[in-house]
């Protein structure tokens, strides 16, 4: 038997019928699906490398598209958060500053991952045949297996709390 009371309490704080919420969820789902499908297609066909004249140029173009899609996703997330109901008892300074601290840690992981991997290492260069000379094991990879994903998650969690 399912206890629907718990779900009913959760859905008091999430308006799943809000257009902004739906668009944010769709953009969150679309982004990784898009870049994984495109990267796997490139790996199989090398079509983007031929179109752009080189694997590096194709990777940079896909990276630029991913960055634009991430900006759109972040905007959609922000707008959805503005229109959602607020949790009672959470509108305090400590909540805001906790969210800020969580976002700062997430930003540290994302930025340090980017600097450790470089642009092509971050934006699917391996699918274009652009490989790193060795596995990156320095910070933040010495702390977490997937610091870019964990960092992004922390940024959005912090943002939600703020």
TrEMBL record:
EC number(s) stated in the UniProt entry for this protein: 2.1.1.17, 2.1.1.71
Pathway(s) the chain acts in: Phospholipid metabolism; phosphatidylcholine biosynthesis; Lipid metabolism
Keyword field: Endoplasmic reticulum, Lipid biosynthesis, Lipid metabolism, Membrane, Methyltransferase, Mitochondrion, Phospholipid biosynthesis, Phospholipid metabolism, S-adenosyl-L-methionine, Transferase, Transmembrane, Transmembrane helix
EC category: transferase
Location of this chain's protein in the cell: Endoplasmic reticulum membrane
Database matches in InterPro entries: PEMT/MFAP, Phopholipid_MeTrfase
Gene name of the encoded protein: Pemt
GO molecular function list: phosphatidyl-N-methylethanolamine N-methyltransferase activity; phosphatidylethanolamine N-methyltransferase activity
Keyword hit for Lyase: no
Lineage, broadest ranks: Eukaryota, Metazoa, Chordata, Craniata, Vertebrata
Superkingdom assignment: Eukaryota
Chain ranges passing through the membrane: 20-37, 57-75, 95-125
Name of the protein: Phosphatidylethanolamine N-methyltransferase
Topology within the bilayer: Multi-pass membrane protein
Biological source species: Atrichornis clamosus
GO CC annotation, single: endoplasmic reticulum membrane
Keyword Metal-binding annotated: no
UniProt cross-references to PANTHER family, sorted A to Z: PHOSPHATIDYLETHANOLAMINE N-METHYLTRANSFERASE
Pfam families: PEMT
Gene Ontology biological process terms from the UniProt entry: methylation; phosphatidylcholine biosynthetic process
Catalytic activity: 1,2-di-(9Z-octadecenoyl)-sn-glycero-3-phosphoethanolamine + S-adenosyl-L-methionine = 1,2-di-(9Z-octadecenoyl)-sn-glycero-3-phospho-N-methylethanolamine + S-adenosyl-L-homocysteine + H(+); 1-hexadecanoyl-2-(4Z,7Z,10Z,13Z,16Z,19Z-docosahexaenoyl)-sn-glycero-3-phospho-N,N-dimethylethanolamine + S-adenosyl-L-methionine = 1-hexadecanoyl-2-(4Z,7Z,10Z,13Z,16Z,19Z-docosahexaenoyl)-sn-glycero-3-phosphocholine + S-adenosyl-L-homocysteine + H(+); 1,2-di-(9Z-octadecenoyl)-sn-glycero-3-phospho-N-methylethanolamine + S-adenosyl-L-methionine = 1,2-di-(9Z-octadecenoyl)-sn-glycero-3-phospho-N,N-dimethylethanolamine + S-adenosyl-L-homocysteine + H(+); 1-hexadecanoyl-2-(4Z,7Z,10Z,13Z,16Z,19Z-docosahexaenoyl)-sn-glycero-3-phospho-N-methylethanolamine + S-adenosyl-L-methionine = 1-hexadecanoyl-2-(4Z,7Z,10Z,13Z,16Z,19Z-docosahexaenoyl)-sn-glycero-3-phospho-N,N-dimethylethanolamine + S-adenosyl-L-homocysteine + H(+)
């Amino acid at each position: 038997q399912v206890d629907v009371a718990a779900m009913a309490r959760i859905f008091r704080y999430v308006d799943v019928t809000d257009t902004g919420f739906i668009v944010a969820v769709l953009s969150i789902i679309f982004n990784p699906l898009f870049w994984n499908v495109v990267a796997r297609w490139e790996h199989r066909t090398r079509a983007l490398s031929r179109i752009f004249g080189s694997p590096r140029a194709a990777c940079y173009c896909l990276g630029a598209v991913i960055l634009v899609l991430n900006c759109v996703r972040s905007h959609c997330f922000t707008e959805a958060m503005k229109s959602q109901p607020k949790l009672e008892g959470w509108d305090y300074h400590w909540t805001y500053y906790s969210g800020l601290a969580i976002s700062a840690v997430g930003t540290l992981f994302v930025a340090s991952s980017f600097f450790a991997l470089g642009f092509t290492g971050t934006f699917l260069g391996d699918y274009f045949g652009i490989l790193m000379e060795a596995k990156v094991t320095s910070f933040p990879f010495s702390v977490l297996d997937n610091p870019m994903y964990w960092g992004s998650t922390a940024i959005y969690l912090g943002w939600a709390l703020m």
